Amino acid sequence: MNIKSFSSSSFKYWLPWLAAVFSGLLLSAAFPPLGVADVVWVALIPLMLACQHSRRPSPLALGFVTGVVFWSFSIYWIAHVTVAGYVALVLYCSLYFAAFGYAFAWLSRKKEGVWWSNLAVMTASALLWSGLEWLRANLLTGYSWNQLSISQYQNIVMIQSAEWGGVYALSGLIVLFNTAAFLTISRYVVRGGKWGRRLHFEMLMAIILIALAFAFGVERVREYSQPSQREISLALVQPNIEQCWKWDDAYVDNIYVKLRSLTRTASLHADLTVWPETAIPGFLRDEGRSSQLVYELTRNGENLLVGGMDFYNIKPNVFNYYNSSFLMRKGMILAKYDKQHLVLFGEYVPFEKLLPFLDAFTPIDGTFQPGEDAVIMNIGDGNIPVSPLICFEDAFSPLATKAVRKGARLLINQTNDSWFDPSCGSRQHLSQSVFRCVENRVPMARCANTGMTCWIDETGRVREILKDQNNNVRCPGFLLANIPVPPDNMEMTQHSTSHGLFGKICATATILILISARLFQTRRKSPREQIHRGQMK
Predict the structure, then answer these.
(1) Is residue 493 part of a domain?
(2) Could you say which of 13, 144, 216, 507 would form a disulfide bridge with 134 (CB–CB 3.0 to 4.6 Å)?
(3) Whether residues 47 and 100 fall in one domain
């Protein structure tokens, strides 16, 4: 083989890998910290082209590489907490990209089809991707983070489709457009660089669907811009305590001083003052100093939502621990919510007793127990029903929907993002909350230890963010927010009433597509393999 032919064959081998890497980079650019959201509408095209034309490497491997690049760059901040957990999570989430590459290759490897055949490919690809996102959000406790649609959280008009299909509706539309562009490019290649005269129905249909989604979004934003008949005033306290100081005995006095001074001022103007997740050192029921502080701040009838840890003595010297939220007044617990969805390797270790080596994947010393249900807390003279979500529970659609179906008209996310700050993690966390508001048409207040303390309205628009005079969000302070709240008898969205049926339909379709790809995909043999088989005969 001469140098020229070697260079040519080497380039052909590496080109699919480069395309897969390029798709991963484009996808990661669509999310914070870069946040170039529009690039997601074309980010999958290089991977799709590589999967269609490549046999070696396999589409399975190409999809996996795209996933590794995307997840490595988009959730790098998890390494601040646990390097081993970060690596494991990147590899696990990349498996879903591998499944997409494998099935998409089967869907796309055919001669140029008629327009309805190409529309079928577009539809199947959209269902496939959305279904894989649903499976990732639900299997093995679930990791519901950075679905494609989340990149559009600032595109207020386009995200309104989440009202009926959740995050999976917009993700599917994004993949459908990517597939339409891929089919158009493929036809151009097949025709030897000529577009041809036939109308590109595939791209036309994708554009029409985007236009319909846009029109629907404009109408919904206009409708929900009408003033609400009632509102609640909240004071969201952000103490801005670094994680390394939270359990440092030498810094405990400073934590109490911050909470006392900020809350005394904030509670004068609010129906409810909110502290972030695990704001107090130790256990509220067991720590005398914490109980005294809470009594001091609520003895005149103020409402205070306290993030803290709790425990129950289930038998002698055996305790169950919980990450909890307490509604306090006059030093008494009026209501308590225990976090339902715990962070894998962050708040509990699976099979900890059988497989003790798994402790290497987590920074915690003990394991928490999950709560059983959403809790409704009635606040103010209007008895406005609110429901807490702790930490990254706002990233899980079923938890927010369950609270709204139970009666909540305001969601309150109490979180401690100092685990991975300073980084883009807190902004990514905020972007998940936006979709919970649109899916259920209720506002949400977010109270963070540091990062993104703010509130979001029913259309997903972030209304106010706590910042200092230098425009820095990582600062001590409090945000006073008068939040319009929908009526108790508000009309439920399609997403809420159907329990997220669209995502389940996508997941079912995905399983059928993957099975079909496995059963019916015929592997095209290269000329060398065919000669080899002929010689063997």
Answers:
(1) no
(2) 507
(3) yes
One of 339, 424, 454, 506 is an active-site residue; which one? 339
Number of structural domains (the chain) is 2
Q: Who contacts 493 (Cβ-Cβ below 8 Å, separation ≥6)?
A: 163, 164, 439, 440, 441
pLDDT string in tens for the chain (537-residue length): 454 554 556 667 789 999 999 999 999 999 999 999 999 999 999 999 999 877 778 999 999 999 999 999 999 999 888 888 899 999 999 999 999 999 999 998 765 567 778 899 999 999 999 999 999 999 988 999 999 999 999 999 999 999 999 999 999 999 999 999 999 888 776 555 555 556 678 899 999 999 999 999 999 999 988 877 799 999 999 999 887 677 677 788 889 999 999 999 988 889 999 999 999 888 888 778 888 999 999 999 999 999 999 988 777 777 888 999 999 999 899 999 999 988 876 666 665 555 555 555 555 555 788 899 999 999 987 789 999 999 999 999 999 999 999 999 999 999 998 877 778 889 999 999 999 999 999 999 999 998 899 999 999 999 999 999 888 988 999 999 999 999 999 999 999 999 899 999 999 999 999 999 988 765 544 444 444 444 444
The angle formed by the CA atoms of residues 337, 307 and 85, to the nearest 5 degrees, is 90
Which residue, chain included where needed, has tokens 């005079």? Answer: 469
Same domain, 311 and 194: no
Q: Is 447 a catalytic site residue?
A: no
The boundaries of the domain holding residue 89 are: 11-224+502-523
**Residue 339 annotated in active site:** yes
CA distances from 144 to 135, 188, 239, 471 (A): 9, 37, 28, 30
Query: Which among 198, 207, 189 is positioned nearest to 108, based on CA atoms?
Result: 189
- 277: annotated active-site residue: yes
The verdict on residue 528 lying in a domain is no
Question: Do 32 and 180 belong to one domain?
Answer: yes
pTM over 0.85: yes
Which is the catalytic residue, given 51, 93, 391, 424?
Answer: 391
Same domain, 146 and 204: yes
CATH at 250: 3.60.110.10
Question: Annotated catalytic residue: which of 163, 277, 393, 458?
Answer: 277
